[in-house]
């Protein structure tokens, strides 16, 4: 468990560095990344089908779950944990590394108490716009939505995505 403490400290530093280097709106890709923490997957797991409401092709919408969620039979959902991260902040998970090589126009972050890994993945995606559910302890979100009801959160995400897409 001491390595998890070291990784947590490293992640906090890496998040701050990535925040400083980030360029808002620099990417015009339509690809969207949804990052959901395990403690929110039960309530917000239905967002994995958000691509339909956003008017995207299924291949332009990727889902990463940060943590271990049992009873998931969908092979397209990528699950990661701190074990997939080396001490130097690089991902050992080759699927995640390959995924993050794509250009993302937007990333949606639904994280709860364990925000470190979710925020790190969202920032590493290089997405032009970051939006998600409050709280945002690292102030990485361009659009922070203060809504706990899953259907209302989904409606707000769709609304803001369409606004951002129209501005591109």
**SSE string:** HEHHEEHEHEEH
The beta-strand count equals: 6
Radius of gyration: 15 Å
Instruction: Assign a percent range to the helix content.
Output: 25-40%
Please report the distance between the alpha carbons of the first and last residues: 44 Å
Mean pLDDT: 87
The main sheet comes to: 6 strands, parallel
Uncertain runs: none
Shape descriptor: globular
Kindly name the structural category. alpha/beta
* Strands in their spatial order, largest beta sheet: 3-2-1-4-5-6
Question: What amount of the residues lies in strands?
Answer: 15-25%
How many helices? 6
Model description:
It is a single chain. This protein is α/β, with parallel strands linked by helices and 168 residues long. It is built from six helices and six strands, in the order H-E-H-H-E-E-H-E-H-E-E-H. It has helices spanning 2-21, 38-44, 50-54, 94-99, 116-124, 150-167, and strands at residues 32-37, 61-66, 78-80, 106-110, 129-133, 143-145. The chain has a six-stranded parallel beta sheet, sandwiched between helices. Strand 4, helix 5 and strand 5 (129-133) form a beta-alpha-beta unit. Helix 1 runs parallel beside helix 5. The longest helix has 20 residues, at 2-21. The protein is globular and about 45 Å long. The N and C termini lie far apart (44 Å). The model has no long low-confidence stretch (mean pLDDT 87).
